[in-house]
């Protein structure tokens, strides 16, 4: 071998050795980092273990894997498309060809990732003091919230049951967890956060289906559950405003509730109480919708005339203090909106002017009061 070849060979050896040394150091650094991360995960646990899905051996590793993937390739509002791993996961949640239990398992993993992300925010909040107030108060969309327009319909398709059976099934705790998660995804609520000009067709369909189910499932014999259900629906009413109005047919299923007629005799007191409580829930929701910007969608709906008749019937019915108070409050909101819109030149096809409706309400109240005096 001549000198030039020997020199060239020596140079290649040096470059190779340097490269090998660098690669070995990088591999060592990566192994140390991976070892530290894996050790952290072994000491980690889910904050809530509600059911067999949470207790499954694969749930925590899947949550860790998602969090690691999100840390290596963080989503942002600038990303137009989901990464492949997330897109494939969404297909698994949405596809009816995937077993139901697998879809729910993936939904649970999404909820845990988003919940854990939200729990970490208070620790990082002090670092945002130098930012503008808008950036501090704007909710964080989390890992999946950056693609809420795709994930919200997928998750709704997995967790929503049959709306016709909602009254019997109620609001399942998994559906509740998903709702609370989605309420933090500000791009779903342009009316409040001005994140986007309007809802996409897919989100609108899923949102309408969700509201229909929640309203039909709102009633429960337990008052605390009723209050929780009302607060949940009210939160969506406040966030969506007129973009997703309350479904009047679903409201009418509660508002027109009547105790079943037994084969002999009058309905028992328990059946009467249930019907009265269902009506109260419906009137409370109707009043909330009217106060949170849904008046046009509700009061111009063809079924609103029927809803108004039911509220007037409740007002005229001697059904206890709760029914009287709720029907009075609901009618007060209706009258206030009717007067306000009439002054603005808005004509509502009810067959009554605001003055005529107010006169009818006064007549009903005087009749109820006189009947009460007579009964005493």
What does this 3D model show about the protein?
- The protein is mainly alpha-helical and about 375 residues long.
- Helices cover about 70% and strands about 0% of the residues.
- Helix 11 (about 200-215) packs parallel to helix 13 (about 250-255).
- It starts with a helix and ends with a helix.
- Mean pLDDT is about 80; it is low at about 5-10, about 10-15, about 20-40 and about 125-135.
Fold blueprint:
Elements: H1 3-42, H2 52-55, H3 59-72, H4 84-94, H5 100-124, H6 133-137, H7 148-159, H8 166-169, H9 173-182, H10 190-193, H11 201-216, H12 223-240, H13 248-255, H14 269-291, H15 295-299, H16 304-316, H17 321-343, H18 354-375
Helix pairs in contact: 3-5, 4-5, 4-7, 5-9, 7-9, 7-11, 11-13, 12-14, 13-14, 13-16, 14-17, 16-17, 17-18
In short:
This protein has 376 residues and is mainly α. Helix 11 packs parallel to helix 13, helix 12 packs parallel to helix 14 and helix 17 packs antiparallel against helix 18.
Structural category is: mainly alpha
Count of individual helical segments: 18
- Count the beta strands: 0
Helix content: 55-70%
Please, what is the average pLDDT? 80
Distance between the termini: 124 Å
- Note the main sheet: none
* Alpha-carbon Rg, integer: 29 Å
Ranges where pLDDT stays below 50 over 5 or more residues in a row are 3-9, 11-16, 22-39, 124-137
* Strand residues, percent: under 5%
Q: SSE order, as H and E?
A: HHHHHHHHHHHHHHHHHH
What is the overall shape? elongated
């Amino acid at each position: 071998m001549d000198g030039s070849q020997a020199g060239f060979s020596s140079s290649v050896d040096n470059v190779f050795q340097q490269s090998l040394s660098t690669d070995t150091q990088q591999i060592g650094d990566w192994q140390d980092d991976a070892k530290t991360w894996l050790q952290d995960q072994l000491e980690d646990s889910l904050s809530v273990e509600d059911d067999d899905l949470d207790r499954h051996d694969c749930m925590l590793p899947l949550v860790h894997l998602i969090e690691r993937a999100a840390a290596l390739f963080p989503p942002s509002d600038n990303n137009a498309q989901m990464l492949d791993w997330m897109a494939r996961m969404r297909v698994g949640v949405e596809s009816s060809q995937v077993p139901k239990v697998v879809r729910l398992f993936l939904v649970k993993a999404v909820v845990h990732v988003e919940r854990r992300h939200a729990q970490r925010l208070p620790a990082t909040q002090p670092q945002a003091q130098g930012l503008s107030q808008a950036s501090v108060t704007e909710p964080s969309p989390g890992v999946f919230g950056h693609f809420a327009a795709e994930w919200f319909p997928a998750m709704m398709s997995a967790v929503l049951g049959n709306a016709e059976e909602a009254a019997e099934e109620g609001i399942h705790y998994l559906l509740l967890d998903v709702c609370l998660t989605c309420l933090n995804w500000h791009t779903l609520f342009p009316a409040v956060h001005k994140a986007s000009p309007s809802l996409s067709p897919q989100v609108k369909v899923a949102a309408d289906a969700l509201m229909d189910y929640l309203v039909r499932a709102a009633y429960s014999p337990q008052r605390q559950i009723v209050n929780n259900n009302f607060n949940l629906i009210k939160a969506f009413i406040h966030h969506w405003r007129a973009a997703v109005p309350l479904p009047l047919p679903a409201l009418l299923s509660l508002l027109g509730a009547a105790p079943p007629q037994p084969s002999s005799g009058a309905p028992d007191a328990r059946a009467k109480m249930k019907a009265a409580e269902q009506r109260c829930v419906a009137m409370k929701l109707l009043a909330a919708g009217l106060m949170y910007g849904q008046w046009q969608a509700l009061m111009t709906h063809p079924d609103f005339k029927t809803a108004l008749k039911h509220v007037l019937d409740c007002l005229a019915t001697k059904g206890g203090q709760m029914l009287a108070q709720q029907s009075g409050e609901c009618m007060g909101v209706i009258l206030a909106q009717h007067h306000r819109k009439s002054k603005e030149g808005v004509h509502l096809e009810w067959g009554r002017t605001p003055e005529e409706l107010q006169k009818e309400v006064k007549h009903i109240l005087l009749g109820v009061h006189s009947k009460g005096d007579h009964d005493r």
